[in-house]
Amino acid sequence: LPDSFGIESLKTINHLIQRIPVIVLTGLADYDVALEALKENAQDYLVKGEINTNLLIKSIEYSIERKKAEEKILASEEKYRQMFYQNPFPMWINDEHTLQILEVNDAAIQKYGYEREEFLELTLNDIQISNPPGETTEVTQQKIWEHRKKNGEIIIVEFTYYPINYFGRTAMQAQVNDITENIRLEEELILQKQRLVEAVLNAQENERKTIGAELHDNINQILTAVKLNLGLAIEYQDNKPLIQKCEKNIETVMEEIRKLSKQLILPGNLKELGLVQSVEDMMGEVLHLSGISWKVFAKGVKENLLSEEQKLTLYRIVQEQLNNILKHAEASSIAISLQVSNSKVQLKIVDDGKGFDTTKHRSGIGITNIINRAELFNGKVKIDSTPGEGCSLEVELNSKHPLPSKNISKESVF
After folding, report:
1. According to the CATH classification, is domain 269-414 in 3.30.2130.10?
2. pLDDT for 11-56, tens place per residue?
3. Among 9, 64, 111, 162, which is least packed, fewest CB within 10 Å?
4. Where does the chain hold its CATH 3.40.50.2300 domain(s)?
């Protein structure tokens, strides 16, 4: 051009009309000039005398296609940039290995309270309170984290990410969803449910005591008096066989009432003898005439780690399942194992009865009571049974006192 040199002309054209691809055609075969032209976004650098018509046409066509591809890339980058910076969820990009935060959006700045410059001086370890057990300081697949904001407030977040290439370095793009309030509401619902279940079970326990006491103190006394009167009447010969039969029936009823009242009323020796001994006493008394062999595996169990409420819960669970076995299983042997640690309690009751199909069998009142009692201690109940193969009931409780937990685990029985 008469009014400017080639490189200046290229800069002017690119500044005024950025979308048009530019090819530099020159009589100078200068490598440095060619390199500078390409740096200024020239699509090609051609030297007169070294090209022909076909080469020029190809260069023009390729330049147009390259320009279109560049525009698509730029448009995609701009779209991505807008999605990143204007995203309503906190987002950032961090180095995969050092965890250094490389870029951050406005939502993250607002959520965590750091200025942009402050954020870019942090690593993930500065905001993550701790890593999951057994993990390294590298980013893991863990989805739930506790983060600390600039003001010290702790928030619970869902943390999702995927790998990206960030200006030639391997990085991770993360998106954060604050679920602190959701967790709080979930824990409140769990706590309310636990309180309701606890109230129902306490009411049942009180009702058991009342009914058991009535059976033992009132009805049994009346039957005892009737039995004595029948004993006196037997001295007379008239209707002696009938009276003897009545006396025998009354003895049977009294024995059944005695057993029932003992089941309903919590044994007073649970506190003195402990859980294991009380369970063994119950098994011996209930099964001594049944022909069913039984064994309790609980040697060395640390009962001091259990509260009185937990002992009662475990005792009632054994009692409920024992009743289920006697009513339905037709078993010849029962095995109970109990393990207690600082974090959990594991109870397992196995019988060799006729079993059942868990996919078709609906849970009854006994199983429902077992599940409700287990839930008081963030527990889970699992039943494994097959027709003809017996039944295994596994109960796992939190050995601590019942508290709501976002990690509560409950497995449906049927």
Report:
1. no
2. 776 666 666 777 776 666 666 766 777 677 776 667 666 677 777 7
3. 162
4. 6-85
For residues 183 and 198, give the distance between their C-alpha atoms in angstroms, rounded to a whole number: 22
What pLDDT is attached to residue 358? 86
Q: Is 395 helix (H, G, I), strand (E, B) or coil?
A: strand
* Reported pTM: 0.48
CA distance 84 to 104: 8
Domain with CATH 1.20.58 in the chain: 182-265
C-alpha span between 285 and 263 (Å, rounded): 11
Q: What residues form DSSP beta bridges with 348?
A: 337, 394
Contact 349, 392 (CB under 8 A): yes
Alpha-helix residue ranges (DSSP H) falling in 139-219? 180-214
**Quick one: how far is CA 135 from the chain centroid?**
18
CATH architecture observed for domain 6-85:
3-Layer(aba) Sandwich (3.40)
Question: pLDDT for 332-363, tens place per residue?
Answer: 999 999 999 888 899 999 999 999 988 877 67
Distance CA 133, CA 140 (A): 11
Q: pLDDT band at residue 395, thresholds of 50, 70 and 90?
A: very high
Third-level CATH fold of 91-178: Beta-Lactamase (3.30.450)
Evaluate whether 163 touches 170 at the Cβ level (below 8 Å): yes
What single-letter amino acid sits at 142?
Answer: Q
| pLDDT the model gives residue 237 | 62
Are 72 and 26 in contact, with CB atoms under 8 Å apart? no
pLDDT band with cut points at 50, 70 and 90 for residue 189? confident
Return the axis-axis angle of helices 240-264 and 220-233, rounded to nearest 10°.
Answer: 160
Tokens at 347, concatenated: 């109870």
Cβ pair 24, 6 in contact under 8 A = yes
* CB contact at 8 A, 320 and 284: no
3-state secondary structure 294-332: EEEECCCCCHHHCCHHHHHHHHHHHHHHHHHHHHHHCCC
CB 359 within 8 A of CB 413: no
Q: DSSP state, 43? A: S
Matching CATH number, 182-265, of 1.20.58, 1.10.10, 1.10.3470, 3.40.190? 1.20.58
**Residue spans in the chain of domains classed CATH 3.30.450.20:** 91-178
Q: What are the residue ranges of CATH 3.30.565.10 in the chain?
A: 269-414
